[in-house]
Specification:
mainly alpha; five-stranded mixed sheet; two-stranded antiparallel ribbon; 23 helices; globular
């Protein structure tokens, strides 16, 4: 909602394109491209598509671009001579292109299976734009030794997009490290040392230009937030690394162990190992040194998926079977829980899940819609078919071990977005709180002053309530004032005494930490204690 608010401000001309603001507040993330994309989509589809749906369109394309770029990046890494399997004495091994396609399929499935991809990749936020441009740059680094034109364009787009999406430091580190990877890569018959030097120089030049561009636009903001030296903080980060990158991280560790002799081969690092390790390492370092740890770790997923794919040729049958059984039990259990709670919401049976829903989301009224139910039912049947196919006797594809993790993650996300979508909308959205506020005001006022509201609340009141939210004291005559409860202590210095009287206190029923205080403008002459009350 916060990012969407800035997109609407740009689309309506209420903010400048190179310095987005909403009610005088700059974005938390110093980004431009994500807000531009949403604003352009809103402008181009105005009149025939709702603004919130229009803003999703470019981010759907960004997610698609992430998947495609990860597949091609893994494919070209697998085409590296060091990544190819040992040739048999009498032939019969897989062709290089076929082997690379199988590895790329495994990389794509590993990316889809990562639990951390589920929510953040479906948000209209700068995090998804950063993920897409990281994947594009990853593809460029993998493909540049084989082709020049399109990978070079991808490198420019990836570095520039990262810098303009709020991650110029990430772009600087990834670009510089990629140049060293090109420079130190082992030359082959098709890629000579001079060509590698040209690639390294070109990557350094592009990185430098992008860094200067970000500096000129004022996008450099160092937000270093080192973890506290206590067990709770490190345990939190460790838990994030474990679940966010599951199931890729066990396969990554296996890859690093089984390919340990490929780290340095012939006096030079193996590019199919060095490139994904560098991309993942930079993202993990950002995770440990920034406040938004999960959104920084999101950028590591394409590289981790590529590393996980290289574990597939070396997996023993017993290990693959263990992955299958764990995945089958885990995702089948998750899907069963989703279905049971949905049935409880609809019928009240079983009573305990229904009571839990009523307690966590008071006021929510479930409804039955045929189309989402049909989609969820078909998806569940496809999951059953996929399990039967996986345990069946047929050709053993290289990527077979990652089918169930990817399918299970997709199934659970689809069930949440169909069966649970009304409940999630009610629990996570500010729309119910906005509607209750409008009921308190009894009519849609000409303007409303606000004090202490965060960016998401401002955007929610403007979009869901169609209210003209103004900073407190900026427009005399507004009949109502909304104050966040946490900002009440500073209200005395921001609001002139004697102008407002307390009217109502509203609590977000699904978020006990969000309380709003509503004040009504009163006639002159009332006591100074009205505001402080």
């Amino acid at each position: 909602m916060t990012a969407f608010g800035y997109m609407v401000e740009l689309a309506t001309g209420s903010s400048r394109w190179f310095s987005p603001q909403m009610m005088g507040l700059a974005p938390d993330v110093d980004a431009l491209v994500p807000y531009w994309l949403g604003a352009w989509a809103i402008t181009l589809t105005q009149g025939w598509l709702p603004a919130d749906m229009a803003a999703r369109l470019p981010f759907i394309l960004l997610l698609t671009l992430t998947l495609v770029a990860t597949w091609y990046g893994t494919y070209y890494l697998a085409r590296s001579p060091q990544a190819q399997p040992v040739a048999f004495a009498f032939g019969g091994e897989a062709l290089p292109a076929d082997y690379a396609r199988a590895i790329a399929d495994g990389g794509l499935l590993a990316l889809i299976a990562c639990l951390g991809l589920a929510q953040l990749s479906h948000e209209t936020t700068p995090a998804l734009a950063q993920l897409a441009f990281t994947a594009v740059l990853f593809y460029a680094v993998a493909a540049l030794p084989f082709h020049t034109r399109w990978p070079a364009v991808a490198a420019l787009v990836g570095l520039g997009g990262l810098a303009l999406s709020g991650a110029p430091a990430i772009a600087l580190f990834l670009g510089t490290g990629s140049a060293f990877i090109f420079l130190l890569d082992r030359p082959t018959e098709s890629v000579q040392r001079t060509h590698q030097a040209r690639l390294a120089i070109g990557m350094v030049l592009v990185t430098g230009m992008v860094a200067l561009l970000a500096y000129g636009l004022g996008l450099w903001r160092w937000r270093i937030d080192l973890p506290h030296a206590n067990w709770q903080e490190w345990r939190r980060l460790g838990r994030l690394l474990l679940w966010f990158t599951w199931p890729a991280w066990p396969l990554v560790l296996w890859t690093l162990w089984r390919w340990r002799y490929q780290w340095v081969r012939g006096g030079a690092p193996s590019r199919h190992m060095a490139a994904p390790v560098w991309f993942a390492g930079v993202a993990v370092a950002a995770t440990l040194t920034t406040a938004s740890a999960d959104r920084s770790l999101l950028l590591a997923l394409p590289a981790l998926a590529a590393l996980a794919a290289f574990a597939l040729p070396t997996l023993k049958r017993s290990v693959a079977a263990l992955i299958d059984w764990f995945t089958l039990l885990f995702f089948s259990g998750c899907a069963l829980i989703i279905w049971v709670i949905w049935v409880a919401m609809q019928t009240g049976i079983p009573p305990k899940p229904a009571a839990n829903v009523a307690r966590l989301a008071p006021g929510f009224e479930p409804s039955f819609t045929l189309f989402p139910f049909a989609v969820a039912l078909v998806a569940t049947m496809v999951w059953v078919w996929l399990v039967v196919w996986r345990v069946g006797r047929h050709r053993n594809a290289l990527w077979k071990s990652l089918v169930l993790p990817a399918g299970g993650a997709a199934l659970c996300w689809l069930l949440l977005m169909t069966l649970w979508l009304p409940l999630l909308d009610y629990a996570r959205s500010d729309a119910p709180l906005v509607r209750r506020t409008l009921v308190v005001m009894k009519q849609s006022p000409s303007c409303v002053e606000a004090h202490g509201l965060n960016r998401g609340q401002i955007a929610a009141f403007r979009f869901h309530g169609k209210l003209k939210i103004k900073p407190v004291g900026s427009e005399p005559g507004c009949p109502w004032l909304i104050v966040d409860k946490d900002a009440m202590s500073s209200m005395g210095s921001a609001v002139p005494a004697g102008q407002w009287k307390f009217h109502s206190a509203l609590r977000n029923q699904t978020d006990r930490t969000e309380d709003l205080m509503v004040f009504q403008r009163q006639a002159t002459g009332n006591s100074r204690g009205a505001v402080s009350k």
